[in-house]
Amino acid sequence: MKKFTAIALLSIALISCKKETKTVTKVDPTTGKTISVEVPVVDSTKTVEQPVETMAIKDSSGVYKQTFKLEKGKTYPLTTFQKDVQTMTAPDGKTQSGTSETTDEMTFTVDNFDKGIYDITIDLLGKKNSQNANGKSIVVDTKLAEPKEDQLKMMWKVNKGLVGNKLNMKMTENGKVISITGFEPVYTKVASSVGSVIKDAKQKEAFLKSFKGSFNEKVLKDQFTKNLNLIPAKGAKIGEKWTQTENATPDGKIKLSTNYTIKSVENGVVNIGVSGGIPRKSDKKTQEGVTRSMSSELTQNGTIALDQKTGWVKNQNIAVKTSQSETLSDGKQTQTMKSVSNSTVIVNPAK
C-alpha cells in the first residue's frame, strides 16, 4: 500500500508541475532575427500587474528609435579625452614623433522637464592640455596653477576663462537642441582673463572675434547633436547601417563620412559600431620642371555605447588614423615626406 501511495503522490506532483505553454515569436536583441520560443500561459486572474519601465531607446518590431528619458535634478557627464600621436618621416628616413592630449570636462544637470522640453544647465568644469615631444613635456591644466612659461600663459588664461561658467540648454525629448544661451558672461570672463597678456586693444578685439567664432551657439548645437543624438529619426534595426556626411574642408570639396551600425542591444546597453572616413585623395602638379605629388587618407573605427534607459552616451572609443604623403621630383632626384597621425577619442572614459 505504501508503494502505491508513493507512486500516486509522485504522479500528482508531476501533473501539478506540468504547465501549459504556447509558442510566440520575438526579436532576438543580439542578432535582430525573429525567433520562436515557448513561454508559459499565465492565468490572468492570478497575475499581479508590475510597473513597466519605459526605455528611452525603444524597440518596435525590431526597429530601435532614440529618445531621452532624463531625471529632473540628476547630472549626466560628458567628458571628452583625445590623444594624438603624430609621426613625421623626413626624406632621409629619419622619424620624429610627438604626443598631445586634451581633456574637456562638462556635465549636464536637468533643471526641469515641461511639455516635452528639457531645461538643462551645462557646467564647464575643467580643461587640460599636454604635449610630449623631443623629450620635453608641457602641461596646461585649469585645475593647476598658471604656468610660468610665457608661451603657455595665454592658453591657460583662455581655458581658465572658459571653466567655471554655466550655459543653459533647451532640448526636446527626441534630442533636438532648441537653444543654448549664456555665452556673453563667458566672453566677458575670457576677455578679462587674457587682458594681462594681450595689451593692444586691436589685438584683443581680433582675438575675441576669433574666439566667438569657435565658441558659440551654432558650434555647440552641432557638437551636442552629433555626440548625443545618434540613431536616425526613422530608427534602425540591428545590423542596419546609416551614414552621416560632413564637410572636411571649408569649400566642401572633401567630405568625411561616418558609418553607424547597431551591433547589439543587451543588458540595457545599445552598442553602435563606427567606421568610415575620407577616401584616399591624390593630386599631382608640375611647375618649372618640378613635379609635386600629394596624397591623403583618413580612416576611423570604434564603438559607442548608449544607455538604453536614458538615451545618454555611456562611453565612446573611436580610433582615427590620418596619413599624408608629399613627393617632390625633378626627374633626377626624388624626395618624399610622410606624416601619420593616430588619434583616439574617448567620451566618458573609465576613471
From TrEMBL:
Top-level taxon of the source organism: Bacteria
Stored Pfam families: DUF6263
Region (Disordered): 279-298, 324-351
InterPro entries hit by this protein: DUF6263 (IPR046230)
Comp. bias intervals (Polar residues): 288-298
Protein name per its UniProtKB record: Lipoprotein
Species for this entry: Kaistella jeonii
